[in-house]
Structures are given as structure tokens and as C-alpha cells.
Design a protein that fits this description.
It is a single chain. The chain has two domains: 14-141, Rossmann fold, CATH 3.40.50; 181-270, Siroheme synthase, domain 3 (Siro heme synthase C-terminal domain-like). Helices cover 39% and strands 12% of the residues. The protein has eight helices and eight strands. The relative contact order is 0.09. The model has no long low-confidence stretch (mean pLDDT 92). It comes from Maudiozyma barnettii. Residues 184-246 form the Siroheme biosynthesis protein Met8 C-terminal domain. It is an enzyme of class 1 (oxidoreductase).
């Protein structure tokens, strides 16, 4: 059965990570850049995880201690809280809700007990990932390829069957497109600018379908190879003209089709910065 791959926005949302060993080390670099408020529970802490703590914590955290990062904000990529202790059920009450719960310990019996505690408290809809036990996961991490200064993220997933194969394919994608990172970055920026502009021009509820289809067709016209040379100003004028023509006789704009747009060569000649 296929899984639904989604981009999960976690900024300022609470995430719980139980365990701080080798597996947890692979999760941290994916979590902290999201700006989530990460709470870590573990009696021992991997050195690479300690590096995510504020400097004043580096001299040691007392066993059983609970320390919260008072200077935390979503931009600093640091852990929000650490509980230097073994897992106990009452620790789930540290926050009223968790966007994600990750269990990264090697003892499968304890992992299953944590899973059962979580489901009993929050229900089966709670997002939880139990490392190395796919049946106890309702989401998977996969391997993330990050390009264009983080603007472009590609998730490669085998639905938990082979994380290493996902990582190999991810590495291959990054190597193939590394030389084009600047071009991809510029293309994404320009498409974002274009979408923002036409959203102001066609701002009514009835305009959504027309606007989205127009952007899709224009993006396809330029293709991966040429989106970075788009002239946003000229394309905004083209959209205004086509939108006005489409709304002459009706409140809801007539759907734009592929044949309504100029050809690929014409677009490059008149609506690009080549």
C-alpha cells in the first residue's frame, strides 16, 4: 500500500524524541531545521545530540533533570528541552499535544509499550514513528534531498522497507543536480514571485482555477531548463491581458487552455531574459 507523502510544517510545534543514540542522531538534522520545539527524553545522550544544546548545558545535565532552553526560538536550530532520564508514561504530559512522536530506542518491547501508551492517551491518529518497527509507524522519514538553498526538497521513500536504498537514491539526485543548484534556486524564486503577483491581479474566489491552471501551463511552457530565465514583469502583463479577456463576458473567467498560450519559442523570445 502506498503512503501519502506530505510536507509537514513544524515551526513552533512540539515534537517528542524518545532515545538519544545512533538512530536519534539521524533524525535530529531533519527536525531542527524545521524550527520545531524538540523535546528529547533519554538517560544517555549521544555527543552529536549534545551539540544541539545551548553551550551552558554542555558541562553536563543531571540525571533525572528536566531543562528547558529559555532562549529558544525557531531560527536557532537547537533543542527546546531535554529530560535526562528513562521514559515514563507521565512524561507524555510535558505538553498537551505533540505534532510528532519519535521512538528511537533499541529495545523493541519497551518501544511497543511506549507506542501503546501513546495510542491509549492520544488515539491511533497521533503521528508516531517507532524506529525499526514499521507496523508501529504511521509515518516514515525517508531520505530528503535538499537543493536550491533549501527551497527545493525531494523525499525518497521505500515505505520503511529499505532506508539505505532511499539514501543511495537521494545521494544520486543531489549529485546529478548539484551543478544546477543556482539555476533551480532562481527558477523557484521567479515562480514564487509570479504566483504572488497574479494572486493580487486575480484575487477573487472565482479566479482560483483560472490562476492555478495558467501558472501550470506557463511553467510547463518554460520547462525545467528555462524557468530561471522567466521575465516576471512581462509575464505578469501577459496574465493581466489574458485574465481581462477571460472575464469580459462572465464573472468566472473562462478556463485557459494550452492552445491559448504562445508557443515555447515565442515565450522564450518575448517573455524571458535570454
Amino acid at each position: 500500500m502506498l503512503s501519502l507523502q506530505l510536507a509537514h510544517r513544524l515551526e513552533n510545534r512540539h515534537v517528542l524524541l524518545i532515545g538519544a543514540g545512533d538512530v536519534a542522531v539521524t533524525r535530529i538534522p531533519k527536525l531542527l531545521p524545521t524550527g520545531c520545539k524538540l523535546t528529547i527524553i533519554s538517560p544517555s545522550l549521544h555527543d552529536k545530540i549534545r551539540a544541539t544544546f545551548p553551550s551552558e548545558w554542555h558541562d553536563g545535565i543531571p540525571l533525572g533533570g528536566v531543562i528547558t532552553n529559555e532562549h529558544w526560538n525557531s531560527q536557532i536550530q537547537q533543542s527546546y528541552r531535554v529530560v535526562n532520564d528513562t521514559y515514563r508514561q507521565e512524561q507524555l504530559d510535558l505538553e498537551p499535544a505533540w505534532s510528532l512522536i519519535l521512538v528511537c530506542i533499541s529495545d523493541h518491547d519497551v518501544s511497543r509499550q511506549i507506542y501503546e501508551d501513546v495510542v491509549a492517551k492520544y488515539g491511533s491518529a497521533q503521528m508516531i514513528n517507532v524506529a525499526d518497527v514499521p507496523p508501529l509507524c504511521n509515518f516514515y522519514f525517508g531520505a530528503n534531498a535538499t537543493l536550491a538553498q533549501g527551497r527545493l526538497q525531494i523525499l525518497v521513500s521505500t515505505n520503511g522497507l529499505s532506508p539505505r536504498f532511499s539514501a543511495l537514491l537521494r545521494d544520486d539526485i543531489e549529485q546529478r543536480y548539484d551543478s544546477q543548484a543556482g539555476q533551480l534556486d532562481l527558477a523557484i524564486d521567479k515562480l514564487g514571485q509570479l504566483r504572488s503577483r497574479i494572486r493580487v491581479i486575480a484575487c477573487n474566489t472565482n479566479d482560483v482555477a483560472f490562476r492555478m491552471n495558467w501558472v501550470k501551463l506557463v511553467t510547463d511552457r518554460f520547462g525545467l531548463a528555462y524557468c530561471h530565465v522567466m521575465d516576471v514583469e512581462k509575464l505578469s502583463h501577459l496574465f493581466t491581458q489574458m485574465y481581462n479577456d477571460a472575464t469580459l463576458q462572465t464573472v468566472t473567467p473562462v478556463a485557459v487552455t494550452d492552445s491559448d498560450l504562445p508557443s515555447h519559442d515565442y515565450m522564450l523570445q518575448h517573455y524571458s531574459q535570454l
